[in-house]
Design a protein that fits this description.
The protein is built from one helix and 17 strands. The protein is mostly beta strands.
Length: 242
């Protein structure tokens, strides 16, 4: 696949998936879902809250992946609108908003595939950046990774072009082991995926996926360079396709 950087290593017996659930019998079918999570925020003070993640299919066939999380004085919303066509998932629009006390960060990215550019808008300021075929946004990259993991379960390292902060960045992921995760739905063996930011980065992200739940996500941990920590733990999962 052109313009998508990849590194593949062998790791037998790991069957991986990410956020969205892909049918092995029909590569063109996504299962819409709604999942709820408990959330823990350590932002100088410890906060507890709730989060919801969902995949919905619009009347025009486009898809929207949404995350909403809140905990007292903190909240986060992330939304990605994209299509699935010919094995590709070109994003149309991405939005991220985070509120903490009296501080708000709002970022939007609009993709123009005819002009091969994306328009970034952050804190009211807009600028354009060039993109290459198969460029992803910060949330649709999770879907692209999930599709590749499902198609090639023995691979352990992936890299993708992502429009992030007005620049084209390389996102890398690696398989990092397995853990037993306790949830209100039961205990599940889960595959641990790590965002590989390099040895010099103080930021860390881990995501756990349960094969017994069609590889849906059961936990996310984000550790920031300043020590702030954010965690989601699965509470409930509902399929919306009947």
């Amino acid at each position: 696949m052109p313009n998508i950087k990849r590194t593949w290593l062998s790791l037998p017996s790991l069957y991986l998936g990410l956020l969205l659930l892909w049918s092995s019998h029909s590569a063109a079918q996504l299962r819409p879902f709604e999942a709820s999570y408990s959330s823990q925020w350590d932002v100088g003070i410890s906060l507890s809250g709730q989060a919801k993640r969902s995949l919905t299919i619009n009347s025009d066939g486009s898809l929207r992946l949404t995350t909403n999380a809140s905990a007292m004085v903190a909240s986060l919303t992330e939304s990605s609108l994209f299509n699935y066509q010919d094995g590709d998932i070109p994003p149309h629009h991405y939005q991220y908003q985070r509120k903490l006390l009296n501080k708000t960060r709002d970022v939007q990215v609009a993709f123009d595939w005819t002009k091969q550019q994306a328009t970034n808008t952050a804190q009211g300021k807009a600028w354009n950046m060039p993109i290459v075929p198969h460029t992803l946004d910060k949330q649709s990259v999770q879907l692209r990774l999930q599709l590749d993991l499902q198609a090639h379960p023995n691979e352990t390292a992936y890299a993708y072009d992502v429009a992030d902060g007005g620049h084209l960045k390389t996102y890398r992921f690696i398989a990092d082991g397995e853990d037993h995760i306790d949830t209100p739905l039961g205990q599940y063996n889960a595959i641990r995926i790590k965002r590989d930011r390099g040895t010099d980065s103080d930021r860390q992200t881990w995501i756990w996926f349960a094969p017994a739940l069609d590889y849906s996500i059961v936990r996310i941990v984000q550790q920031e360079a300043d020590g702030k920590r954010y965690q989601l733990n699965l509470k409930q999962l509902t399929w919306l396709d009947g």
